[in-house]
Amino acid sequence: MATGFGIDIGGTGIKGAPVDMESGQLVGERWRIPTPASSTPAAVADVVAEIVAHHNWEGPLGVAMPSVVIDGVIHTAANIDDSWIGVNARELFSARVGADVVVLNDADAAGVAEMRVGAGRDTGGVVLIATMGTGIGSALFTDGVLVPNTELGHLEFRGDSIERYAAASARDRDGLAWDAWAGRVNEFCAVVERLLSPDVIIFGGGASKKAHKWIDRLHTRAEVRVAGLANSAGISGAAMAVQGVDER
User: Fold this and answer.
1) Residues 190, 192, 195, 197: what is their CA dihedral angle, to the nearest 10 degrees?
2) Are residues 148 and 213 in the same domain?
3) Are strands 69-70 and 61-65 parallel, antiparallel or unpaired?
4) 53-92: pLDDT as tens digits
5) Domain range for 132
């Protein structure tokens, strides 16, 4: 069994585990450490090194970041310290753990896993993976090839980011019933369909765990699917990115 290692960095927790590269399943303990209150590059790199050491992992690994990542450099910082912007995360992590590291956007990582072994497997055309959680993450693929850093949750909508209106956190914040929130998700879908005309939209993130409560209320031209890998997708996709180096 070919095994890789992935780490998913979030605003509240940093998680990592070894991954079966064929199935995408975690094959060891999913070790989670709270994201440092001061989530500076040095502090986060220390946690990454701790997770790698906990698993006694040696060799290349992938790291998913809540950021636009281009050539290993961080260009935005969502829920992590602004001092990340401009940092070459690939060089930072590689030096800290003593191994080659691939760094990519967290939604892109989840998308890599879904396209290889999840709900998007063997699917051609234009596929959008949308992770519905605190925000809306997006990963876009055309005939299986990643178009990195789309960040569609940050599209402007009614004077604000559309994720402020339609993310799963908006349902909780505004006390919406599932059908009312699904109406907002429909509006998000309408925007991305006008822009990209996807053939398939795959919904992941925390809200996908209760997809039966809202997914049938969506009305799209695109085929709608529910993600298959749930919360392990970021870790799995980060590990898989090492193989093809699905980063930009």
Assistant:
1) -80
2) yes
3) unpaired
4) 999 999 999 999 999 999 999 999 988 999 999 999 999 9
5) 122-227
